[in-house]
Records
---
Amino acid sequence: MFRRFMIIGTALITGLSLVVLPVVPASAHGTRWRVIASGLDSPRGLGFAPNGTLYVAEAGVGGSGPCIPHPLGQICYGATGAVTQVKRGHQTRVLTGLPSFALQGTDEVFGPSDVGLNDSSNLYVTLGLGDDPSLRSQLPPNGQLAGTLIRAKVSKGTFKVVADIGAYELAANPDGGLPDTNPQGLLVTKRGQVVADAGGNSLLGVSHGKISTLAVFPPRLVPNPSPGGPDIPMQAVPTTVTRGPDGALYVGQLTGFPFPVGGANVYRIGSGGKPKVVASGFTNIIDIAFGPDKALYVLEIAHNGLLSGDPTGALIRVGKHGKRTIIASTGLTMPTGLAIRNGKAYVSNCGTCADVGQVIAIPLH
C-alpha cells in the first residue's frame, strides 16, 4: 500500500479532500519576483536552450478517457500535455497533444514532466505515467507514449520516442518492487540522457536508445503515522537529477507515504552507482539545481509536508558548511520545477493548477 504513486498534489493522500491552490501574484512580492509565463496547465520541469530560450513541461489536465486502474482509483487519459516555449518575452506552445492522465477526484495529473536540451533544436521530454506500464496496452497509441523519453524537433513540432522507460521497468524492474514507472527528472548530456524514474525508484542512463540502471534507491523504515504502530517502509521516489560542480550526479527525493517532514535527502551517485546522502532534513524535494556560486538549491513542493494540507513550497539555498537559507517560500504554491540562469531562479509555480500555472523568476541576491 502507498508504494510511490504520490508524486505531486495533496489530494492523493489517504482520502484528504482536494486542496484549493491560490496563486500569489508576483506583484505581491514587489519588484523582486517577475512572471515569465502564465496560463499554464500543471507546469512542471524547466530547461534552457543554449540561446536562452526557456522551455516548460506542462503535464496537462488529463481527459475523458479511456481510463485505467490506479492504486487510488483510476487515471483518465487525454491528449492535453504540452511543452511551452518562452522566447524574448513571448510564450508559445511548441508541442501539443502529448499524453496526460488525471487521477479522478484529485488535483493530480501525470504527463510531460521535465525537459532538457543539448542544443537549440533538439528538445528531450520525459512523459510521466505513475502506474503499472503494462496497463498502457489499454490506451490508444498516443496514450501508450506515457512512460517514455521523447526527442522533439522544436521548429517542426514533431517528436519520436528515444527510450521506453516503462518497458525497461517491466523487463528489468531495478528496485524489485511492483511494476511502476513515472519518468520525472531529466538531465541531457553530450553522451546521452539521465532519467530519474520516480515510480521505479531508479536512476537510468540512456545512450543511443539503450537504457541502463545507474543507481537504485531502496526504501527505508520510518515512524508509523499511526500511534503505537511499527515502523513502515517508505519509498524513495527520486524526482530530480542534475550534474554537480564536481561532475557527479546528484538526485533529490520526494519520499513516499507517509511523506515525513524532514525526511527527504539529496544523494550523490558515487562509484559503482551507490547513492550517498550529501544533504538531509528536507521535505518533499521536487527539484534541485546548482547555482553559478556552486551552491545547491533545493525546491520543496510542500515545505510543511504533503500531509499538512498546506500547499506552500520553499526554495532553499545550501551554502558553505551546509548553511541553509530560505530564498523564497510565501507565494510558492506547490512549486514543481527549477532552473537557474543569470542570477535568477526560475520556478514553476502552482504545478497542480489548470490554466493558471506560472513560471516566475526570483533573484538569488
---
Amino acid sequence: MDAVNSSEPVPSAESQLRAAPPHELVATARRLLTDGLGAEEVTLLLADYGLSVLQPVTHLPHTAEPIAAHDGPTGRAFISQTPVVEVPNGSAPTHLVHLPLTVRGDRLGVLSVRLPSSATDPATVLRLTDFATALAHEVTTAGRDTDLYLQARRTRRLTLAAEMQWQLLPGRGCARQEYVIGAHLEPAYTIGGDNFDWSTSADTLTLTVTDGMGQGIDASLLTHLTVGALRNARRAGIGLADQACLADQALFAQYGGKAYASSLLLQFDLNTGTVHAVDAGSPQLYRQRDDTIEQIELEAQFPLGMFEETLYEEQTFHVEPGDRLIVVSSGVHGARAADGGSFGERALRQTLSATRREPPHEAARAMVSGLIEHFGSRDLAADAAVVCLDWNGRKIEPARHTAPAR
C-alpha cells in the first residue's frame, strides 16, 4: 500500500492515518487503498447502538442505506471477526473484501473494499486486515475531536440520558489472552440507569455492573455518580470492598438514601482465576461450566447509597479455563411478560444454553434479544444490561532452571 520507487522515505499507511484530520479518515483510507492496491470502492460501516445494522459513514446527516449487521457477507465479517471475500457470480473483474474493525476486542464495524480480483490473494487480505485494525484505532481516537463517527452510528436520535450513558461506557467489548468480554444494553436509544465498566492491569481485571434506580435523566445522573465514585476509588488503589464503601458514602452524601444504585463488583486474579466479589444489590451472576448452568449465590448486601457508612465484605469464588460468566441486571432477570411470566425463571436459562457456543459479544446480544422476544416488545419496561465473559486463564510458563556455574 506504500510506494516503493522513491528516494524519500514514504510514511507508512498507519502514520498517514494518524496524521489525517479526524473527519477525513475515510477519505484518507480511500486514497491509500486506491493508490496502493487499486481499490475501486472503500466504505466504512459502523455498528449502530442497537447492533442491528451497519451504517455507512458518508456525508452527514445523510448516510447511505444501512446493511444488516447479522446477515450477508458484511454481517458475517462483523459477527465472525474474520475477513470475508465476496466473489460475485461469473467472472467479475472485482471482488469485495469485508474486514472487521475492532479495537482490543471492541467491535466497531466493517471496512469494505472493492479490489481487482487479482489483488485478493491471502497476503493482500492479511495486509488489509492490519490496515483495518489501524483505521479502527484512529476512528476511536478521532471520537475525542469530532462527532462524525458517533453521529454515523445512529439510526435515530438518542435521548439525553442515553447520550450520557453511552459516553460513560468503556466500550462494548474487551479481549486479552486471559479473557474475552462482550456486553449489550437495551433499549439502546433510551437507556437510563444501567451500566457496565471494566479496567485491566498486569495481573487483575476489575468488572462492575451497575443499575441506578429510576428512569431517564435521574437514573443517568445517579449512575454517573456511582461509576465515577467507583473509578475514583479503584484508581486510588484500594481494595474492592473499600471501593464499594467509598461509592456508598458518595451516593448517600448526595441523595441521603432517597436514591441508590445496585452494583456487582468483581475482581479477577489473572494468574489464579480467583475472583473477589461484592454483591451490592440486584445484578445476578451465572456461571456456565461445560453444559452446566449455575447461579453463583453471593451474600446480598445493601445497594450503594441506601444507608450511611455501610460496610461491605468481599467473597471469593474460582473460575477455570473454559468457564463463561454472565452478569444480568434486574431488567433482565426480573422482567415479566404480559402473561406475568418472569424471564429469569426459565427463559433466561434456556437462552444461556442456546448461546453457549456463540462468542461473548453475540451471546450478550442474543440474550437481550431473547428478553425482547419474551417481553413481546422492544419497548422494555426497564433497562437491560448483559455482560458475558469467557475465561481462558493465564498460561504460566514453567520456571527455567540454569545449572550452577562451575
